[in-house]
Amino acid sequence: MPQFLSTSDPGFEAAFAHLLSQKREDSPDVDAAVAAIIAEVRARGDAALVDLTARFDRVTLSPDRLRFSEAEIEGLCAQVPDAERAALELAAGRIRAYHARQMPRDEMWADEIGATLGWRWTPVTAAGLYVPGGLASYPSSVLMNAIPAKVAGVRRLAVTVPTPDGVANPLVLLACRIAGVDEVFRLGGAQAIAALAYGTESVRPVDKVTGPGNAYVAAAKRRVFGKVGIDMIAGPSEILVIADRDNDPDFVALDLLSQAEHDESAQAILVTDDPAFGQAVARAVERHLETLPRAAIAGTSWRDFGAVIVVRSMDEAAALADRIAAEHLELLVADPEALAARISHAGAIFLGPWTPEAIGDYIGGPNHVLPTARTARFSSGLSVMDFLKRTTLSRMTPEALRALGPSAEILARAERLEAHGLSVRVRLDRLNG
Amino acid sequence: MPQFLSTSDPGFEAAFAHLLSQKREDSPDVDAAVAAIIAEVRARGDAALVDLTARFDRVTLSPDRLRFSEAEIEGLCAQVPDAERAALELAAGRIRAYHARQMPRDEMWADEIGATLGWRWTPVTAAGLYVPGGLASYPSSVLMNAIPAKVAGVRRLAVTVPTPDGVANPLVLLACRIAGVDEVFRLGGAQAIAALAYGTESVRPVDKVTGPGNAYVAAAKRRVFGKVGIDMIAGPSEILVIADRDNDPDFVALDLLSQAEHDESAQAILVTDDPAFGQAVARAVERHLETLPRAAIAGTSWRDFGAVIVVRSMDEAAALADRIAAEHLELLVADPEALAARISHAGAIFLGPWTPEAIGDYIGGPNHVLPTARTARFSSGLSVMDFLKRTTLSRMTPEALRALGPSAEILARAERLEAHGLSVRVRLDRLNG
Fold it and tell me: From which residue to which does the signal peptide run (chains A, B) (predicted)?
């Protein structure tokens, strides 16, 4: 059973603080190993990739087989059953439509002194997407990363996905094809990140690297940050469900379990104003754990990090939600929009009983790459913005320079930056002379 | 004299590649020292801040003097001459007006199956701004960091600024007041970043930390990233000027020097299609170096990292500009807008002869915190977006769930995430039963 807390309990504050500060993730120190792998790829290029792939993925490839050929992709895609293909295509269309609305607009205007000011957005030229191998090789994550990049206008999008023991996941390749990925490489681990950031004979370097991965991949992303841009380093997944008694305990139990089954370090929390409902949900969770295929993972997550918190009011629930700053937040209450308006910090909010988080994971349209570990206090989920950058523009007329130049000069002198001041002064003198 | 390169020279590609890859910054390895400082602040709070401030800034403060009082700020602000106050206020008003236009809009819509989708933006609750001490203690940087935060709606904005030997910069305090900063602390170095991220008895923790600093500050920001959000880690400043012969060499020389005077590691590059104009600019630079107060710094930067590149066409200039991806880009050509449209990568573009970069540093309106070291390929200058985060919203109706649920179930099963599928199935069964 998970922890049961109640805000009316005198020990609540301490127990809640403990829940928030629980360390859920082991971070093995792999930095030295990763540094060595990156150095090897930079020094030896394809040869290093071939050696490292043989060592870690037990596949021996010649350099010309690092990249999947069109025929290979075609062959793998043909293995996908029609129903799965149709589901992927429906998801891709909805994700594309949602992200197309995120495209920001360029702006240019003339202000009251005649200065022209503005900004414009341009895509990064090339991006790389890391896709894990094995059990965590999710075609849905390919769509969620690749589609925003393509909507943003990224010209070249490369995917790396390891093929342990030579096994490729047809659904991942099909997702790449549907999303418009340009190149797919049989590469995983820190060596894949190094290849994307620095390039080799076969892998052209990119400007931005995104995508989930294990501790080696995360450490490699941290190391190449600066040389290329990276997305967030995601931690274990989380869900917070706020539900009143007018809900089916089964709905809530399965929503909690759909986070818990991801990972033993995942966290599922229910906040409710009805203790009996909280108990009913907990019983439903236990019941489903008897049959769920991933019961071992989900059960560990639920017992170690799960919680049922009973509040005295939905005001308290909103305040706790902001302190938890959950990756996923479901609001199963009479007026979910009103409650949402009172909560500031969450990666994604799912409103009402017909919006299980799993819809958002696959097919709703919004991105499923979301801030974890309370980082929703200051960061956002993946979007087209991750593949765009803004350039500011300004143009002064002689009149605008006359209006602003003297003040710029005063500030430059105050900061003892004489050349800054002179670059303005020489122009003012020209205009006045 | 700086390097002279020409694209028609057979050795150009190698020389240009060398120019791009030159290591301009010493990065002393201060990480162990910074880790110890952060641990000390976390363990001992204010007492650690007092000790570390005595050691590094040679000021002994009681904990109740870590924060500037209103009366102290008042007294310091009163020392600022009227002309400087008026210039700061003009700058603040323009920066505020520019950044107010950046505020993104919330969106909600119903799609063709009746699902309600959208997102909304909310500010981070509290932000901290690091302001360096000594020579690099720039009031303009206070405005450029603090105003976007306040425009975004940050409720509590704390500034830390060291006061070496007890000396405070009145202009910095006035800039804090004009920008609406809520709290100012006499703190610098890694200890200031630790206090902002983790909090002490006197310093409440924040959610986001921005602002420039030395190697210790940069290392501390990297270490607290994840616990709080950070802005970029900025490197030495850069300018690229693309100018044709119809320009005053003096304008261009002073614009180049206004970067070079920042730092011996700064980089100033001129690209021109007229070798004689390039020579004239180089001569003008040398002439100004005879009288410039910061000639030692500017001269070292210009000799070690400066360059004049002669191109055969403005097409070549545009291509080089994208490879350089400069922090600041001035276009002094007949049709600067047309040339700007052919360049993708730059932090800020200054159009035409009356827009010296110094105007952008102080008073134009756009932010002067910009991506350095070629990171304009994938990142943007500071903006209101750095103090906002986006929450996605979705609400399914029963009809929308009927339309999407079966495909979500198929994808969940394909990824072997049974609880995900069941959370959808249980609802579909309810709707159909």
Answer: none
What is the least distance, in Å, from the CA of A207 to any CA of chain B?
Answer: 6
**pLDDT digits over A373-402, tens only?**
999 999 999 999 999 999 999 999 999 999
Distance, in angstroms, between A388 CA and closest chain B CA?
7
pLDDT band at A2 (very low <50, low <70, confident <90, very high): confident
The residue among B390, B401, B413 with the most chain A CBs within 10 A of its CB, best to mutate, is B390
Is B327 one of the annotated active-site residues of the chain?
A: yes
Tens digit of each residue's pLDDT (9 = 90 or more) over A250-288: 999 999 999 999 999 999 999 999 999 999 999 999 999
> Distance (Å, rounded) from C-alpha B339 to C-alpha A430?
25
Query: What is the ipTM score, two decimals?
Result: 0.96
CB-closest option in A84, A370, A407 to B87: A407
CB pairs under 8 A between A and B: 364
Closest residue in chain B to residue A407, using alpha carbons only: B87
* Res B156 pLDDT > 90: yes
CB contact (8 A) between residue A109 and residue B101: yes
Chain B partners within 8 Å of A366 (Cβ): 117, 119, 392-394
Which strands make up the sheet holding A208-210, listed edge to edge?
A: A183-185, A156-160, A126-130, A208-210, A229-230
All domains of chain A, ordered by start, with CATH? 31-112+127-230 (3.40.50.1980), 235-378 (3.40.50.1980), 396-432 (1.20.5.1300)
